[in-house]
Amino acid sequence: MKSRSCYSQPARQPVTDREFVSVVLAALVCVIACEARAHGGDAPRWMHAAVDSPLPAHDEQTNAVLLYSETDVSVISIDKIRTVERRVYRILRPEGRDYGTVLVTFRSPGEKVNNIHGWCIPAQGKDYEVKDKEAIEASLPKVEGSELISDVRAKILGIPAPDPGNVVGYEYELEENPLVLQESWVFQHQVPVQESHYSLLLPPGWEYKAGFLNYPEVQPVHSGDNSWNWVVRDIKGIRHEEDMPPVRGVEGRMIVNLFPPGGPGNKGFSNWSAMGAWYSALTNGRRDLSPEIKQKVSQLTSPTATPIEKMRAIASFLQHDIRYVAIELGIGGYQPHPATEVFSHRYGDCKDKATLMSAMLHEAGVDSYYVVINSERGSIVPQMPADSGGFDHVILAIQLPQGASLNGLGPVIKHPKLGSLLFFDPTDELTPFGQISGALQANYGLLVTPDGGELTEIPQQPSTMNSVRRTGKLTLDTQGNLTGDIEEVRLGDRAWRQRWELRTVTNNNDRIKPIENILAGSLSNFGIVKASVLNLTQFDQPFGYNYSFQASSYAKNAGSMLLVRPRVIGVKAQAIMETKDPRQYSIEFEGPVLDTDTFEITLPQGYVVDDVPPAVDADFGFASYHSKTEVKGNVLAYSRSFEIKELSVPVSRAQDLKKFYRIIASDERSTAILKPIN
Amino acid sequence: MKPLRLLWFTLGVLCLFSPVARAEDHPAINPEDLKMTADPVAPGASAIILYRQVDRDDRQDATHEMNFVRIKILKEEGRKYADVEIPYDKGSSTNIVNIQARTIHRDGSVSEFTSKPFDKSVVKARSLRYMAKTFTLPDVQVGSVIEYSYTLILPDGALYDSHWILSDELFTRDAKFSLKPYSSPYSGVRVRWSWHRLPPGTAEPQAGKDNVIRLEAQNIPAFQTEDYMPPENELKSRVDFTYTSDPEMDSAKYWKNRDKEFNGAVESFAGKRKAMESAVAEIVSPNDGPEVKLQKIYERVQKMRNLSYEQSKTLQEEKREKQKDNSNVEDVWKHGYGYGRELNWLFFALVKAAGFDAHVVFASDRSRYFFDPAYLDAQKLNTDLVIVKLNDADIFCDPGAEFTPFGLLMWSETAIQGLQVDNEGGAWLKTMTPKSSASRTINKAELTLSDTGDLEGKLSVTFTGLKAMELRTDERNEDEADRKKTLEDAVKADVPTSSEVELTNKPDWTNSSTPLVAEFKFKVEQWASPAGRKLMLPLGLFSAGERKLFEHQERIHPIYFHYPSEQDDDIVVTLPTGWHAVSLPKEVSLDQQVIVYSMKAEDNKSSLRIRRSLSIDVLYMLQKYYPALRNFFQNVRTTDEEQVLLQPASTTASN
Fold this sequence. Notes:
The complex is a heterodimer of chains A (678) and B (655).
Chain A: H1 18-35, E1 39-40, H2 45-51, E2 64-77, E3 80-91, E4 101-107, E5 111-121, E6 128-130, E7 136-139, E8 149-150, E9 152-158, E10 167-176, E11 182-186, E12 193-201, E13 207-213, E14 221-222, E15 227-235, E16 253-259, H3 272-282, H4 291-300, H5 307-321, E17 323-324, E18 327-328, H6 339-345, E19 347-348, H7 350-363, E20 368-373, E21 393-399, E22 412-415, E23 419-424, E24 444-449, E25 452-457, E26 468-476, E27 482-490, H8 492-503, H9 513-520, E28 526-534, E29 543-551, E30 556-558, E31 561-564, E32 587-588, E33 593-602, E34 607-611, E35 616-619, E36 623-632, E37 635-644, E38 648-649, H10 654-669, E39 672-676
Parallel strand pairs in A: 2-12, 8-18, 17-19, 26-33
Antiparallel strand pairs in A: 1-6, 2-3, 3-10, 4-9, 5-6, 5-10, 7-9, 11-16, 12-15, 13-16, 14-15, 20-21, 20-24, 21-23, 22-23, 24-25, 26-27, 27-29, 28-29, 30-31, 31-39, 32-38, 33-37, 34-39, 35-36, 36-37
Chain B: H1 3-17, H2 31-35, E1 47-57, E2 64-73, E3 83-89, E4 95-104, E5 110-112, E6 118-124, E7 129-136, E8 145-153, E9 163-165, E10 171-180, E11 190-196, E12 206-207, E13 213-220, H3 232-235, E14 238-244, H4 251-270, H5 273-283, H6 290-303, E15 305-306, H7 315-321, H8 329-335, E16 337-338, H9 340-353, E17 358-363, E18 383-390, E19 393-397, E20 417-420, E21 427-430, E22 440-449, E23 455-463, H10 465-474, H11 480-494, E24 500-503, E25 516-524, E26 529-531, E27 534-538, E28 559-560, E29 565-574, E30 579-583, E31 588-591, E32 595-603, E33 607-616, E34 620-621, H12 626-640, E35 643-648, H13 649-654
Parallel strand pairs in B: 1-10, 15-16, 22-29
Antiparallel strand pairs in B: 1-2, 2-8, 3-7, 4-5, 4-8, 6-7, 9-14, 10-13, 11-14, 12-13, 17-18, 17-20, 18-19, 20-21, 22-23, 23-25, 24-25, 26-27, 27-35, 28-34, 29-33, 30-35, 31-32, 32-33
Helix pairs in contact in B: 5-9, 6-9, 8-9
């Protein structure tokens, strides 16, 4: 995981939160099996009514279908919302057994599951029933990079006999003291849905505003006083595809903002601007300074330093001296800890780091603004209504002084009121000041300003800022053995990845393994003669590898000829498009890239080049690939460039991407033929 | 809890909080440790454990264990060790108390951990409550030393085996352990202990005059994982303590006692001679020879419903099934179902009734550790099988392991020690080690090459022995769609480039006595790559499995294969009309005795025949042989990458 998530609220989705299920339930499946002793009891009428529903469109890979779902939200007061959730699944395949496990996440204290029931209607025999006391409660396990301490918990209930052909269903009631007066109805899931209902009951005088995402707007039926019902039918499932957009960016859902008489106060908002104001209020006073912080700023920044130098020094302090630790309890999922606490403990999560950095910058005479963002590009799109649940990360927009040189600073926008803003992520310890990781580029974040907030696009950096520049000078002997030296210079995420890999290495002997991995991807028989790493911890400098290797039998004999692959190392071709099923979703790249390889192979004495592979020039707009093999005296010279220019390839161009990768694969395997002079 | 015991318990807990009851004093921090920036004994480490101390006291009613750890942070990455989570089982009345923690800075100043640890409810259910004390230390920087201590309170009146796992993911410079074992003149319970891979120079753990067992160790390497390594338990430094009611310390006598116990259990369950004789009469015919008889009984038992391999069920489902328990082999036979061990013992009873000389063998599978009878730990005998004498040969059988072909055992039961029970003291024996030829993957392909380099045709893959067993076991509860995908993915994983694979037959997933045969439509685009007007066809079509095998130069642990196996490829490639081979790679044969590889390409004019074979007949290889092994697989890869140079007739003419 490249970016850490540290701004969160519990997902109010049972069962479909598959990641949570996979992490927690793997450990608990035995417990559930033992606990679910249960009682005989007929399934409720609403569940039996769904059994004979026609199945929504599906194929042989569909694990289950959601026959019926119902979400009834009753707003009691500004501090209490009660939600009843009902679902009925038909299990179609053995892998669909997961749907026999109900998982409800909630925060404790503050929220509670009042009751939870599950039933199974088997194809034959009596119904099964399980009740509250069979449920278990679990917390998030400690996973490196996630919250150390959190109040998110899950109620888990195992339903008996969730076997293919059987129908399982459940009902639970969740009571919450909402931190934000906003509800979300997700009606599109991994499995197809036959029918999904949502009802909203408001106290007198309350109002709501609903907006749909990834689905045409549905008009509700107004039933009685302050009660509305929405229904959708026959929704196709979201099947995972490699490099697809985040599920949040493609699933059909409705966001409902709630407005009590007199306004939502500090608990709600109707648009991005209001959400910005809400967040601004939440962080009010959090950036206050202590004498110790002021002293530290003074230590870090000399009075004669330029503003950019001051920013750089403070950024480095935040990246390397403030340890990432997430403690998120209650409103702490949104609200940062005070800068003074973060400073004295020397730890905090993303919003804590942003808070302390903003405070320190202010002391140094630089203004900065929170940017609330999602670490997966595509989760937040400009046309969507304000959604507090769509974010999981906080970074900063730093106001650059007028006339400051933008040289070397990638993610900068010109704001009409605030002037030049540089985006920076103090949680990302390995991306230097002036750059931002690929996942945050071309991503939308909520810029929180004194006037409120606005959804702002983080700029995409030039592809030259994320690259591997590899050059090799090599010599081939008559036996086909290849020896030589390689230099690699890495920038941006390409550097980040190697630094991260080496950072987690626990002994010096293993530092060579990343180079071995690179070579093993292309060479069958090699030994590394020497290797060194450049600028491992000098993050503002390009990362580098220099290494020498020998590869036995690199060139193959074919009669009197030698067959040589000019592309010595490095693999750009990918197989992600080589699937049977047609692509459903766009293909997302992590960031712009420009990689180049240059290999010069000195030929063995007595051999000349008989044939070289043809040059390749492929430019599909979103990406390009160029390679050529030339003969320069007794040197076989290969050069290529691989560039990702656009970060998203639409489904309509999926075949082009497939073609693009096949062209690369062919080039990477192509061979030059050497023949003896006589 | 009775009042008096409650009083003792309370006093015990209170004592833990008093200064006198703190862990045996740990040494003060050496000022040099505050200054150090790296440890030459652990180069490159992000952090090291300077000192660790574990003191367990099983003697009082309030059994407890005090833990202390001091860690030096050497790199930014090492700061993660300041996040601490200590799990405990509150449902069993264990608790964590007296947590103390602090950060010592390079200059010797101290930041105390003053907050309250977060008490996280990991899992809470009707019958259990797993908790964790979670906290993080303040102001931790590269160069800091962090230390924390806590006391684990164990439930009153319970005795738990304890384990000193010396190996940690961090290098440990100094460690001290002690155990005050429970002893009582009335109960007869006593502690045994064994140790494994202690660091060089470490004195064996011994009980002192005060009856406290102690161990001191230095320079314990950080534990690392590698591909193809033996079970972690075999590689970690550790001391294991077991409480036992059998005071016998003599190995022969100890196992004689166990033999008697085990034999009693087997006889009690399997001693239904008459019922078994009538059952045998239903399975075999009088004219069957001994081998046929034995196989028929094996197959019959294996086809019975094996409860050990079914999806786990809730109590409600079990209750509704009204499934009766089996008290003996007659019940198993009548009910038609049983757990693995019950089926094995039924098999044992049946073959005895059929007149075979047979014994039940209690063994310890090698998936988690390698068993040594010298450790006198009968709990480690976690599996069982049956040995049958057939024509003077010993046949090992485990029909309770579903899909195990007759004459084979599941991999974790092969090449292990087992106690053959006979009520006469038992006998240790070693189970079979199958040859690689017993577990094969055979790829047979008839393919056509296009002049653009695409390969297309039919592929048949046959899995035998343990290869077939693994597939059948893994897929036993899956549907046809999943099985199809599994087989197609297996083929794709073997091909070094993208391929299109479509299963065309319905393999037999249920019968362990026949190989699993899967047939496919198969296509690889651009398998042969152009070189001017020529095409180059690589030989290793199904060689992806060896592509990245043993790619690293350094190796720490021995190399461990689960079972011997073999892959044989026989590929016929019909060439495009008018094309022919200009040159063929030489035949290659690499023979390292326990690992053998061969590759041969034949020119049959309009077609090529490529045969490749790789057999591995070794389970365990010492680390010193790693360079040779790596070199072997590098040569395998080099040969797999050899290419046949093809050209059309017109090219020949122009040449």
